[in-house]
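Review form for a predicted model. The reviewer records the input and the model, then writes brief findings.
Reviewer: anonymous (R2)
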Amino acid sequence: MKKLKITEMNRLTMEEFKEEKKTPLVVVLDNVRSLHNVGSVFRTADAFLVEAVYLCGITSTPPHAEIHKTALGAENTVDWKHYEDTHVALEELKAKGYTVFAIEQAEGSTMLPDLELDKKKYAVILGNEVKGVQQSVVDACDGCIEIPQFGTKHSLNVSVTGGIIIWEMFKKLAP
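Model under review:
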């Protein structure tokens, strides 16, 4: 088995990516501190044709060398917006017909394997590395999705969580 060279992978150009039909999914980062997490979410969003990434609160925005280090240019392909307040982003998404889920461990959350989606538009909110998604943001969401965990730790890294959630949503919503 021979590894493929980059030139053999037939990836989209930046222009082709912009024109490609997107997965009806927006990823919202709620006060994410780590620039590496931000970059990783951009890169995963690019891989699975996510519509946009919303960067809220203290979450840094491109252009930034530390975001680029993990995004590897995906910050230039995936559409993004910055909001000072996550609530404003959430209100805008709901006004545009998105169903919004916080990715959070909460009473009544839906376990990811049990999540059923139709072909609507969705947004998922990933929270701060220490505090998670703000409670007031959770309260304003349509529900919470939880990734089952079976070990001793209480949570996953934001970029790992993003990867799992984006992949699962892509499988259910792929264009």
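Findings: The chain has a mean pLDDT of 96.
Further findings: The helical segments are 14-19, 35-47, 65-71, 74-77, 86-95, 135-140, 158-173.
Recommendation: see findings above.
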